[in-house]
Amino acid sequence: MRADARRNYDRIVEVAREVFREKGYDAPLDEVARRAGVGPGTLYRHFPRRDDLLDAIMQSWVDRVRETTDKALAREGSPREVLIGWFEAYTALISSYKGGPAKITSAMGDPHSPILTKCQVLAGASQRVVDRLDQEGALRDGVDALQVCRLVGGVATVADNAGLPAADVRPLLEVVADGMLR
After folding, report:
1. Nearest to residue 20, comparing CAs of 8, 32, 35, 30?
2. Structural domain count of the chain
3. Domain of 10, in residue numbers
4. What are the pLDDT digits (tens) for 120-133?
5. What tens digit of pLDDT does each residue of 108-159 get?
6. What CATH number corresponds to the domain at position 115?
């Protein structure tokens, strides 16, 4: 990629991150192009589909998922505290942008999603938590990481759509955790 094309690419990703935070994932891409100081053609050459732009934005998010998972697994406390701590962290991870929880949760397990690799990172992180708690004998039989992602993602989607504060989300996550623990 030429240096000027790389600058445009990086600028579009940076601006899209800001616009999506402000207005959600459905914000007009023309606004992203305008704020980035490029024409719509330049934006669409780099990102033919909205999901391609979303994928580029989410790359730094992947690193945060890994760090957050490590912290959740290092947490001391009961299996319930570890699980609820992971659920709160998971909810925060997918709620960085308005509309994020629904977008990510609906893509979870979809082999045709352009953000599939990002969803796999998140599902893998949940699998690490499930594996640890399963080894401790803390989980009911049959708890599946993908199901956990979809269930906690559903709670996060409701919270996102309703504008619920974290204090109102925690009791919902506690109910989910209690249903998974022995």
Report:
1. 32
2. 2
3. 1-48
4. 999 999 999 999 99
5. 989 998 788 888 999 999 999 999 999 999 999 999 999 999 999 999 999 9
6. 1.10.357.10
